[in-house]
Design goal:
The complex is a heterodimer of chains A (about 325) and B (about 400).
Chain A lengths: L24 H4 L23 H13 L5 E6 L2 H4 L13 E4 L4 H14 L5 E7 H6 L2 H9 L4 E7 L34 H6 L5 E5 L4 H13 L4 E6 L3 H4 L6 H10 L5 E5 L3 E6 L5 H9 L11 H19 L4
Parallel strand pairs in A: 1-2, 1-3, 3-4, 4-6, 5-6
Antiparallel strand pairs in A: 5-7, 7-8
Helix pairs in contact in A: 2-8, 4-6, 10-11
Chain B lengths: L1 E6 H14 L7 E5 L6 H9 L11 E5 L3 H13 L3 E7 H16 L5 E6 L13 H4 L7 E4 L3 H16 L7 E6 L7 E6 L2 H7 L15 E2 L5 H33 L7 E4 L6 E5 L3 H14 L4 E6 L1 E3 L3 H7 L5 E6 L9 H6 L8 E6 L9 H12 L8 E2 L5
Parallel strand pairs in B: 2-3, 2-4, 4-5, 5-7, 6-7, 11-12, 11-14, 14-15, 15-16
Antiparallel strand pairs in B: 1-8, 6-13, 10-12
Helix pairs in contact in B: 1-2, 1-6, 3-4, 7-8, 9-12
The chains are: A alpha/beta (about 325), B alpha/beta (about 400).
């Protein structure tokens, strides 16, 4: 697609910039003539309204453009229900659906086969937080340690969404799930820190409210070699008990409040903050208020604010320029 | 063809590497590997093998993964991309791998796996027991049980051709007894690569994942599952005929004929038959020879192919039997021996079929143990519940 413009994002957008022109319809979500022949997520899929994973797939579709040929590996999760029943597929790309814990290993197989046969196929592993933080962790860690040529994207809706909304190790403290009816007690696992510790070429977090940054990072991740990990906070109205239309705004609030840091880590050492939060307490309060899952639980916003402060002092130290 | 002094573990790795190199001009060879006693020497040798192609590019990718579950997952990814794949495991490794063992069959991928039969634990026991692979009976894989190292090498080559045949397209499990074969060295004929290339057509997987936007392994509704199982069952049903074709082709390329799905021994006029699998069959044959010396009408059957189960062959071979002892080096707790429970129904009317569970946990089954159960069989008026034998330590 973008002749003479390889490597830079088509979606030159700042956080609140408006964008004219056909390429930026609907904030960059719409399929345009400059895009791949068919979207990665085809029309007619049965995903829930307001599904953050669907938005992430649309962003990925733009990042892939016509520049890459991809093969996807998706474990048992909402992402594979998205494909629809045999013999149909709602994905505009080949998908190998695998067992829950196997994503990174099956992707390894496809990637090695492509490498061995001189093919430029980019293998994209697409899994939720359950398949990444929990059951798939050993496999993910091993593939990262071997620096397999795989782009692993975790759409994190902080819940086992496909099985009806049970807690995962990505569920934040205070969130009510079907298995933490009083609200979760334990912390959310620091997945970016874990993946960065593998010293992979790129580990980054992506905000759906910042499509310019998101698509640029996806493009870069697609082009890099070795193991790349992207973490997407994906609103799930069903599990979060939130309005479908509020999803992107919720992510924006989480980013502004500093609750969801948007950053990247190269080779496990070079940390960069991509979006500076305002640490707005109003955003933090609203983020929780707009989601039914936090209602009536022992969530302590003051404590969350202190944790955000601590986490950011660590992040700033990591991202500080070195002499 | 050269004769080499090889353990069954090395015979298996040697066969896999030959099959892999024979696919170099197609989409190459590979697999995920993970160690477990008593299989580790197989994957260690594989990791020493050189798969560099004539142009300097790799034609074989052996991925050292973090678990058996991922070993099979890597095989699945590679096989779905059209690569010829191999892995090996044993015992608890197979148990841990099981989810993806089933998946491999459901994808209809012609993966070949060597399994060293070992007792499931805990408590930990590294010696032979067939319970680990028989646990995978219903996984949709073909299963073969070998009696010596040559058979291990030959069966791995043989099953690649069988598994990759378009009428079959099923994974194959090639089993051998822990230590009795895995760590025992025997003179083994190793074929030349040219012979293997002649025997094994290049793998051309019809449902290879390309760039067509299809989803492989997504969701089925009940009717689709009915059809998929029907197709899988039909592929299993096609195996015996393709097996015989492979025997002919193997004999033509290598000059020796792999055994039938059920291997008979001195079955002419035999009214008393001992049925077994794996290396116990060798001991059984020694006992049969001694009994024949005494003029007794005894014979033996070795079940080499367990899946698909050779019902027709067993029915034919047992047509004249009056008494049958089925030896199981395994136990399905709450039932009895697995081979025995599978075989029942193949015997003629009025034939007495007695199950002997023997050699569990690697107990050394010697000729006198077999003779004891043969005497027990001969003295019976009726069958009893499966007899759990103890062999002398």
């Amino acid at each position: 697609m973008r002749d003479g413009d390889v490597g830079s994002s088509r979606l030159e957008m700042t956080e609140h910039a408006t964008c004219d022109g056909p390429e930026c319809l609907l904030g960059g979500m719409a399929q345009t003539a400059a895009d791949r022949p068919e979207p990665l997520l085809r029309a007619g899929n049965t995903n829930c309204g307001g599904c953050g994973m669907s938005v992430a797939l649309n962003l990925l579709s733009h990042a892939i453009g016509t520049q890459h040929r991809i093969q996807m590996v998706i474990p048992a999760c909402c992402g594979i229900v998205t494909a629809g029943p045999y013999p149909y597929s709602n994905y505009g790309a080949p998908v190998l659906a695998c067992t829950f814990a196997s994503t990174a290993a099956v992707a390894t197989g496809l990637a090695r086969a492509a490498q061995m046969n001189g093919e430029s196929t980019r293998v994209v592993a697409w899994a939720g937080d359950g398949g990444t933080y929990d059951i798939g962790m050993a496999t993910l860690s091993a593939a990262a340690e071997r620096n397999e040529d795989v782009l692993y994207i975790c759409y994190d809706n902080e819940i086992y969404g496909n099985t009806g909304g049970q807690r995962s190790s990505a569920t934040p403290t205070g969130a009510r799930t079907t298995t933490t009816p009083g609200g979760k007690v334990h912390h959310k696992k620091d997945i970016l820190g874990i993946m960065a510790a593998h010293r992979i070429p790129l580990a980054a977090s992506i905000s759906l409210a910042h499509p310019g940054d998101a698509v640029a990072k996806m493009e870069r991740a697609l082009a890099l070699e070795g193991f790349r990990f992207l973490h997407v906070l994906a609103p799930c109205p069903t599990g979060w008990k939130s309005e479908p239309a509020d999803g992107i705004e919720l992510i924006r609030m989480a980013v502004r409040a500093g609750l969801f840091p948007v950053c990247q880590v190269e080779d496990g050492r070079r940390w960069t903050i991509d979006v500076q939060p305002t640490f707005s307490r109003t955003d933090l309060a609203q983020y929780f208020e707009l989601q039914g899952r936090f209602r009536g639980t022992a969530l302590d916003i003051e404590q969350v604010a202190r944790q955000i402060e601590e986490h950011w002092s660590e992040l700033r130290a990591l991202a500080a320029p070195r002499g | 063809m050269t004769a080499e002094f090889l353990s069954a573990n090395h015979a298996a790795a040697t066969a896999a590497a030959l099959a892999g190199r024979a696919n170099a001009s197609a989409r190459g060879f590979g697999g995920g590997v993970y160690p477990i006693t008593p299989q580790s020497e197989c994957i260690e040798l594989l990791c020493k093998m050189d798969f560099t192609g004539p142009d300097g590019r790799s034609r074989g990718e052996i991925v050292r993964v973090e678990s058996e579950h991922s070993a099979m997952a890597v095989c699945i990814g590679m096989a779905q991309a059209g690569v010829r794949t191999f892995t090996a495991s044993s015992s608890n490794g197979l148990a841990y791998m099981t989810e993806n063992v089933f998946a491999a069959a459901m994808y209809r991928l012609p993966i070949v796996m060597m399994a060293v039969n070992r007792t499931l634990g805990p408590p930990w026991n590294i010696w032979v027991d067939h319970g680990d692979t028989l646990m995978l009976r219903d996984s949709g894989w073909m299963q073969f049980y070998c009696e010596d190292n040559q058979e291990v090498l030959d069966t791995i080559l043989f099953t690649y051709r069988l598994a990759e045949d378009r009428r079959v397209l099923l994974p194959a499990l090639v089993c051998q007894d822990a230590f009795v074969l895995s760590h025992t060295m025997m003179m083994t004929e190793v074929p030349e690569l040219e012979q293997v290339e002649r025997f094994l057509p290049l793998l051309d997987l019809p449902h290879r994942l390309t760039h067509e936007p299809v989803t492989v392994g997504g969701m089925d509704f009940p009717h689709e599952t009915e059809i998929h199982r029907h197709q899988h069952a039909a592929a299993m049903a096609a195996v015996p005929a393709v097996y015989r074709e492979c025997q002919d082709a193997f004999e033509e390329c290598f000059g020796r004929r792999p055994a039938d799905a059920v291997e008979p021994y001195r079955m002419d006029d035999a009214d008393t038959v001992i049925v077994s699998m794996g290396t116990m069959a060798s001991t059984v044959r020694a006992v049969i020879d001694a009994a024949r010396e005494r003029g007794e009408k005894v014979g033996a059957l070795r079940v080499r192919m367990f899946r698909p189960f050779p019902d027709a062959e067993l029915t034919d071979l047992l047509a004249g039997a009056k008494r049958v002892a089925v030896l199981d080096r395994d136990i399905s707790l709450g039932k009895g021996g697995v081979l025995w429970s599978e075989l029942r129904g193949a015997e003629p009317r009025d034939c007495l079929v007695q199950n002997y569970v023997i050699g569990l946990g690697g107990g050394d089954v010697r000729p006198h143990d077999i003779q004891n159960l043969l005497d027990d069989l001969r003295g019976r008026d009726e069958v009893s519940a499966p007899r759990l034998m103890e062999v002398a330590p």
